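Raw record, unedited: serine-type D-Ala-D-Ala carboxypeptidase
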Amino acid sequence: MEDMNKKTYKKIMPIRLHLLFLFAFIIFTGVIIRLGIVQIVYGQDYTNEVEKQEDVDVSNSVPRGKIYDRNFNTMVGNSPLNAITYTRSASTTQEERLEVAKKLSKMIKLGTDKITERDKKDYWILTNSEKAKSLITSEDRQKLEDGKIAEEDLYQLQLERITEEKLSELTDEDLKVLAIKRQMDQGYPLNPQFIKNKDVTTEELAYVSEHLDELPGVNVTKDWDREYPNKDLLRSLLGQVSKTNEGLPQSLLDHYLSLGYSRNDRVGKSYLELQYENVLQGQKEKIKNVTDRSGNVVDSQVINQGKAGKDLILTIDIDMQKEVEAIIEDELRKAKQKPGTALLDRAFVVMTDPKNGDLISIAGKQVKNKNGKLAFDDYALGAMTSSYAMGSSVKGATVLTGYETGAIQPGTIQTDEPLYIKGSPPKKSVTTMGPVNDLTALMRSSNVYMFKTAIEIGNGTYKRSEPLSIDPKAFNTFRYYFNQFGLGVKTGIDLPNEAAGLKGAKTDPGFLLDLSIGQYDTYTPLQMAQYVSTIANGGYRMQPHLVKEIREPNPDKGIGSVIDSVDPKTLNRIDMSDSEIKRVQQGFKLVMQGPNGTASSQFSSKSYNPAGKTGTAQAFYDGPNKDKFLTPTYNTTLVGYAPADNPEVAFSVVVPWAYEDYSDKHSITNNIGERILDKYFELKSKQSKENTANKNLDKIEDEANTQLNE
């Protein structure tokens, strides 16, 4: 029995071993086949996967947001451009880019005017490698071996030894290639660089498109350029955008890079374009480039489609702006025909809604003589960046300062007479007026009334022919109250680089008297508009602003939905009482409508019920003509608002260096003021009628649609 069991066991064992070996053989065979498939069939794919790396920092430009006026008229738009770009990988060589440039030179035309001498030398070295090597002597190479010079010094020696004769070897065809390669070299790895984005013909675009497989890195796309339908209108305040070959401004490079910008992105460089860069720029299209270990792009994927920049709606009325600028030019042209106006070269107008700070128009013009004819440049920027002595137009602030300090009361009478102060020429008004109260002092522009108010504020005592002594702290008192109106401080406009004006440094008593009549500190035309607005609206200093709304872009309808609105902002309420402010308002109304008002000859008959204050300041020329620097001259100003009982528009007119001799004075400031107010109310009536007509038309269309639906 035992022997039988042993025999049976011996028979079963080989069968099991055979099955085990067979099973192991099958497994190993499967493994070998699988490894073969992986290595032979998919081996290269897996190798590529191992060598891949991702870069998500590449972006494509999108159209910049548009800028409209308050009535949705386009002020800044975008004109579409066909474009040809080049994107180089991290491993692309100079020789490879040269080959692409040679092929492209047969397909497109690119100007050669931007090629520099250095560009030519670099190109000559690249295309004449053997000749370039011969420019390096054995002594130079020995210095390199000895460590006396670096490798890059050899290249510099080559550049220095390339003669004009050698550069003359470059043909017109070489220059065409160089112009293209120059553009290609300016790009950063994996970032599209525009080779040509202006005047790209449809033939060029089509030809390049057909041969893209022969042009590694080249692509055809769309670009944009800023478009200004109104040409130079407000250009200095609208600002500038960097060009495609500029990229990020060097002064703001780190700031923009930290925000995710690419080095060749176009951005706002100044004023409105810069101030609202984050709104106008838009959301760029993001591309994920997949590269191999050598940096060659093997795949691209759009991870964010991008979105055009948001649109700005300004407070500016473009129709009014055009009229204001035309009026300034016309009046400057007339004034320049009169004697004593050699230094007259500019004028400013600021119009604002005194209730909310909306800037309806902000204009400035500089006049130049070009080939015997007058030419005008936009200088709206100067309304907020240049300051001048403004003269008597600030007397409203002086009177209110007198009220608040107790130096005078509403109705206080003072004698207008020449003041004789020891060591000083007589201080007087243009005409001696005798006893005048505060209203008459404003209406007829009494200097002496303001002088005596200032002396009282400074705790001084006037005695004929004796020195005048005042407390120097009175300068601070004046400036404290003037600042409340916006005089001598920044207005808060939503633009960079606003000027605050200049403060006189001396504290001699005579300068306090000059300060009281606007002939010491300097102010900007924008500050003057804020000052008169504060008086017009009952004492509230409103922050002026250019942007009214931010809206989504809408390619179909043009104007999209509102994202954000700029609410009126009160910066401060002046310390004076309502009754005191109304008293000065009454004085301002008399200036333009009273029997002896300094502006009544031009404004007393106006139906829009104006109020305001004129001003003339003895000043010294400090403009661009250095030969005439510090020549005595006169600045003329006018501030005002209308209607006097419910102001809807306030304004300042400033004409520096209007004439050199008082006997040659002319009425350019009042003329401009009269014409801009006339035009404002004329346009208001016209726009009101148009709006009524449009509403009636909409009503008729709605009724017709209703009937059709029925």
